Fold these 2 entries.
Entry 1:
Amino acid sequence: MFSATCVAPVNMALVKYWGKRNEELILPINDSVSMTLDANEMCAKTTITASESFKQNRMWLNGEVVTFEENARLMRCLAGVQRLALANGAHKFSLSWKLHIASYNNFPTAAGLASSAAGYACLVYTLARLYELPLNEELTTVARQGSGSACRSLYGGFVHWRRGSSADGSDSIAVPLAPASHWPNMHMLILVVNDARKKTGSTRGMQLGVSTSSLIQHRAKEVVPRRVKELMAAIESRDFQAFAEITIKESNQLHAICLDTYPPCVYMNDVSHAIVNFVHDYNETVGSLQAAYTFDAGPNACIYVLAENVPRLLAAIQLAFPNDAQQSVEYLMGIPVPPV
Ligand code: DP6
């Protein structure tokens, strides 16, 4: 019997991935850039055991059974790692041994935050450890086939997912841009907005976007390539003003595309919009961009802020969104935040 346990953190996109050119291989229509969060804060944890005596592959997610063999994405990840293991030849046991996989998220599912990215990254990385494979570009192409954004969670710090151009997806890879230590005072706050409504998932939302939005191709061809370059330069020079402006515009463009989709995908709610207004007002009051928001396919806000500005921003957030108000932010998680 052989076993491996790993954790993989959540990542949050700065330049957003939205739209596929190949649904099966999960090939995006544009590059994306993200920041991976601290592994201890919000992550998936997976244990995989391989045994000659197991009769079938089995999987549990947060203690619930997952129908493994019927899940095409899971199967594709397993097949992808096993293909690499076969080529590498270093594994200590037969690839025919069945697996038992147990995975947990340590963040509240209500947060709806990139759980598939951390989950698939963790699955693929743990499989790689089990079969004694290195973390490299090829492994990111496997994680990408679980969930596109998962390929970015294999690395810490700032990560670039290149869309690639080959039909087989071999050059659609994630590459690390800079470790977290490059910008150590970069912090993120997550404002979890209380919202029970069911939304169109990312996969469906981007499918609809590609087939109905007349803005999405302009974004992919004209806007994103320029923004990726500008954001990479901002990260390299630790220029928070440029970083904040690109991040905010990216979030707004993603949601503009979602509204341009037919029927429209509405992910942000009134509280999300109140947070947007709050951040713009706050930046105007302090006289520079000290906070930047980004929203994925949901109402929750991620706010980027430098460590030295966290206490003032948090105090302003608590004043603007008191817990008992109608427009409340359910709770706040800092990554990492000093106590106030
Ligand atoms: C808005 O990676 O969840 O978070 O590839 O279909 O699994 P699939 O989609 P997914 O989409 C993430 C979309 C996003 C933006 C981003 O993370 O870049």
Entry 2:
Amino acid sequence: MTEQRFLHGQWSSRMAFILAASGSAIGLGNIWKFPYLAGDNGGGAFVIVYLLCVVAIGIPLMIAETMIGRRGRQSPINTMLTLAEEAKASRHWHYAGWLGVAAGFLILSYYSVIAGWSMAYILKVGGGFLANADAQTVQAAFLDLKAAPDIQAIWHTVFMAGTLLIVSRGVHRGLERATRIMMPGLLAMLVLLDIYAMTTGGFGQGLAFLFEPDFGKLSGESVLVAMGQAFFSLGLGMGSIMVYGSYLPDHVSIARASIIVATADTAVALMAGIAIFPIVFAHHLEPGMGPGLIFETLPIAFGQMPGGSWFGLVFFLLVFFAAITSAIALIEPAVAYLSENLGLNRTAASWWSGAVCWLLGLGTVYSFSGGENGSSRNFFEWVDFLTADVMLPIGGILVAVFASWVIKREVSEAELAMGAAYAWWRALARYVAPGAVALVFLHAIGVL
Ligand code: PFF
């Protein structure tokens, strides 16, 4: 292929793509959100539904999105434009690209704040805060952090700057190098924490909670939550995997790479649960603690355990690694677009988009200090709702429809080169994925 086909560079190997895409998929969604959602929705039965969603919807969509990216070889917006023209379809399809870029931007604005919390905890826990800290002290620390917008703003700034530093260095020296170092590190830390969890005495109970299905606890609502979570966790419907696909060399099998990435993402979510729940149960704490599970419940347990400070430190480092390798994927579509259309160099494109995103994040920073305000959504909850419940599902449906209905069959068949499995992919992408995602969406906005 000519150099010109890769405007922004390309991955140096299949492994580089797999690590970067896994870095995008594996994030706060796996370590912060999945365990508390499983906790809130009854454990085992939720996990089974989640696995089904990954296989029937997540993987076909990931294949679809990566394929679109590789075929278009540009930012999601220009990719959609080029491919729509190639298929003689409406130019309006490029709005799907816009939707993705905007969603990534909005998600990163709050993602950076939560990731900032993990950095605050690295410092706190590393400084010995957990040594013999009792439950009240730990709880008070989390409340204090949430009530201190200035401290959160500082960490939000540091995290965003770190993200931009990586992104500004480009595909090769930035994204690829960061994920090559951090992803193995993340896995090693997670394995260490899993082994540690085995020694806590709550291991059996933790495993039973995660893997013994009690379908009585599963509501229609939880099925939809599972589907939404699969979507968010795999990082679909918003251009990140599309832009990563656009840096993918031609000879790599998209289907195989997607299956590996989805499997890694799911394995890490389960391993995070396997690390967290035994520790929670060993200390007779509640698993369904909502978003506070890892910042409040878990540190209480760490505070009472031998070596708890060390393992607590490893845990928050893990959260940080997971978050930053996702953050770079969230902003990459915008950076690619700005450098294509405004002619900005990569550094300028990164810092400009980062600055706007940072500003938006301040809205989230101030969302937590007001305490509970009844049923009305705060800024953070609005952004979360708008992205996870509205933009991602719409983006996902558009991607599935575009890949399987608009792009010509010869094109997708050649691009995917997956033999007999192609028919399966096509059926799932044409009917199952858009149908199921439409259900989630209609439910989320209150129509169903
Ligand atoms: N998949 C990430 C997580 O589970 O935390 C979040 C995310 C990253 C969503 C990248 C979307 C994306 F494009």
